[in-house]
Design a protein that fits this description.
By secondary structure, this protein is mainly beta. The protein is built from no helices and 11 strands.
């Protein structure tokens, strides 16, 4: 079973930046597609970004141009660089591989 551990969440002002990390276990990490999802209070979980094993990336329209997903296969880690953060980006952010979910990391955007 794959273990996924997110980190890097916190409190930031609108317009600020944060970088989330997802550290994954498993020898097949470099061949894995990793997703970021988020869940805001009272809302359903929603897709945020995806990075394919080939490093092809996909983004939700709501974050396109502001968020960047990347990976370091040596460190078995995927990153989510979040810029120009908005209040509506406030959510718990989850790292997902196939059906395995991390425990999530809280991102709060507030003045």
């Amino acid at each position: 079973q794959v273990q996924l551990v997110e980190s890097g969440g916190g409190l930031v002002q609108p317009g600020g930046s944060l970088t989330l990390s997802c550290a994954a276990s498993g020898r097949t990490f470099s061949m894995s597609t990793i997703n970021w999802y988020r869940q805001a209070p009272g809302k359903e979980r929603e897709f945020v970004a995806r990075i394919h094993w080939s490093s092809t990336t996909y983004y939700a329209n709501s974050v396109k141009g502001r968020f960047t997903i990347s990976r370091d296969n040596v460190k078995n880690t995927v990153y989510l660089q979040m810029n120009s953060l908005k209040v509506e980006d406030t959510a718990i952010y989850y790292c997902v591989r196939d059906t395995d979910w991390g425990q999530g990391t809280q991102v709060t955007v507030s003045s």
